[in-house]
């Protein structure tokens, strides 16, 4: 019997997760390692199968996108980081329901022509998409999503006030 060769791994440059070193598709302006993007896809497929469309769904998308910023040269990247941070702010700081937070994110995207380049001064936080793998049940899944999202949000402390102001300007309407 041949000894099994452990699969090659690599570190995702954005979230620092150690993932399988594979060739594969990634998002156009989300610079995650293909192995990290693959886990994100698997987590979402598993979530849909087990829980339908749970409140954690959007939080996970916000956490993933905010944890994988590009260099800001692409307007869609700047918009994505800003909008998903707004989603995290709405859920975690304002404690809004998933649907209401989603409305805020859509309004931010539709009302602003451009977005500033936001850069983390720390992070990417101690948890990654891998924290979502292996949840026992939906309550565990929701709790894991909260923990991961909080960790990502903390890594962006330097821009909390900018994001908060943008959201508050919209919710004051
Ligand atoms: Zn990653």
Comma- or semicolon-separated keywords:
mainly alpha; two-stranded antiparallel sheet; 2 strands; 3% strand; binds zinc ion; 173 residues; 54% helix
Structure description:
The protein is 54% helix and 3% strand. It is mainly alpha-helical. It has one domain (36-171). It has a two-stranded antiparallel sheet with strand order 1-2. Helix 3 packs across helix 5 and helix 3 (75-93) crosses helix 6. The model has no long low-confidence stretch (mean pLDDT 93).
| SS elements, strand count | 2
Helices, by number, come to: 6
Q: What class would the helix/strand composition place it in?
A: mainly alpha
Shape, principal axes of CA atoms: globular
Total domains, how many? 1
Please tell me the overall pLDDT.
Answer: 93
Strand order in space, largest sheet: 1-2
Q: Which stretches of 5+ consecutive residues score pLDDT under 50?
A: none
Radius of gyration: 17 Å
Beta strand %: under 5%
SSE string: EEHHHHHH
Instruction: Name the hetero compounds present.
Output: zinc ion
Helix content: 40-55%
Gap from first CA to last CA: 69 Å
Major sheet: 2 strands, antiparallel
